[in-house]
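G.,

No rush on this.
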Amino acid sequence: MADEYITVTITVNGEPYAFTVHQKASLLDVLRDQLDLTGAKFGCGYGKCGACTVIMDSQPVKACIVPASKADGKSVRTVEGLAAKDGTLHPVQEAMVRSGAVQCGFCTPGIIMELVALLERDPSPSKDELLDVLEGHLCRCTGYEAIVEGAELAVELFAKQ
């Protein structure tokens, strides 16, 4: 039925888009299926693992639980939109690579987006604040040591940009 579909207009990584999607579609569905932006991962579908984290209007959100309709008129950034046009990594991406916090890479984009949002709000967060934002992200590979080291390095690199 036609009324099961809605049109949403979203700016993603600086580019405006309009989509007709099923009314039950999530923001993650739009990003992955309509734009082929697969950095945000489908992990749990309940907003608990953090793998789908993106930034919507300056706030980190779990894209798997944000209805596409709620993203209408919003600006969304994904991990694909962080690096410079010349390929230079964002300081948070650089920090994760340098600290070895990328192992399988499944959780890494969500963690990166969470840290970017934090650093844009507060460029010098405490270690407790870093740990708080990492708490909503599940990682099965690293044991979190490298991720915490990467988060601390991200603060340093972000300050230098």
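When you get to it, here's the other one too:
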Amino acid sequence: MRLQFNEVRARAAEFAREWQDAHYEKGETQSFYNDFFEVFGLKRRRVSVFEERVKLLDNKSGYIDLFWPGTLLVEQKSAGRSLEAAYKQAMDYCDGLKSEQFPRYILLSDFQTFELYDLETREHTAFALADLPAHAEKFGFIMGVEKRSFKDQDPVNIVAAELLGKLHDSLKANGYDGHDLEQFLVRLLFCLFADDTGIFQRGIFEDLIRDFTREDGSNVGSFINEAFEVLNTPEDGRQANISAELNQLPYVNGELFAERLPTPYFTAAMRDELIVLCEFHWEKISPAIFGSLFQSVMDGAERRKAGAHYTTEKNIMKVIGPLFLDDLRAEFAHLKGLKREREKRLRAFHDKLAGLNFLDPACGCGNFLVIAYRELRQLELDVLLAIRDSVQRDDKTKDFYAGSLSRVDVDQFAGIELFEFPARIAETAMWMMDHIMNNALSQAFGQVYARIPLTKSPVIHHGEHWRWTGLTCWRQMSATMCWAIRHLAALSCVMRNEHIRSRR
């Protein structure tokens, strides 16, 4: 189970006490960082290596003190040495790395001080070893808790789709096809994402594949299906003699793993493709567009017939802004500026957000739903921060646990899609975005918050529109149909405006 930040801070305090006299780079660096990673509940060797060789621009070689490809580069110095020089050295190392290895974070230390650089947000944090507990949240990325920003054209989404597409093609060529293949890959996508973002104990799924499947691939499919069964079973309902390693997997629920699938048979080459997938940094993909990109592994003729494509985030925002988001933001800005009954009115507004429902009647892989959900969760986070500020200002309570108050959830969103595969991708993408926003909540409040096991699901129906006649579904549609009609009208206006601009 992932640690809570209060336990991480306690571990950080003990780490600071134990290493308060450390000073020698060559003799103590490795033990120092082995213990440092344990503060966050992760074994250092699972994700990083010491003394990684890198070729510099002047054709010389250097050695990175600690390297976690794609995530963290550490340059360590003895106590009292210049960290300014260490930063220059770290950036020189970055110049020699492949693009997919380029880290998001650079950490500099002389044992007694830390400097952490976030190369994505350009945030720089410096503090003494003794103050590590107060800055523990800055290292939440070690646990999979970090803020993410996504770009429509980020190549990482294309690379990820291509890697998953290779395994798709291999399984299909072997005769594992149709619904079984699609469901297997959607489950696998969830596990890969969960392994890198803290839903699972970080890296456990990759370790299981590496350590408990044979190199010839003969037991890979059966082992993965066994893992799926474990993920679908509550901890207190599992067999007593289940392996300790598999038992580390959490109960997920959400019916994602409920159906028992036929066993896919792997070869050694297919196992290698799976390990490459496990090594990829899945926390970097955008749930909003990855599904549509992954759908591109389908047969081209079928894809054109089905209309598989994705709308960029920029154009999605053009629709959902005037459709509902601009009005909600304006209302929040007004409430935030009130002098009287501010907290009461903000809480009522929060009730309003939790009561909204949304329908995309042709949702595809869920691009519009995922972005709309992200924006609604971000607005809720802003509201919770404003409520917390009001509570603390009035000194009504010393404790404000945002996780217990977060009420916007995926079951407020519904979609209709003709085919099952994109419908299941949309459902999974919504859960992925939910976890990303839970991480944002965790970062903002310094309290780890996760919705595992999944208790609520987006309502994604696959089939023809006119056949969606279940009473519950029609109730949801009646509550949201006005949003759907305005959605289509707004989209038409956006497309018309874009066409006029292009003609100019």
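The chain has three domains: 5-142, 155-285, 313-503. The longest strand covers residues 61-68.

Enjoy the weekend,
O.
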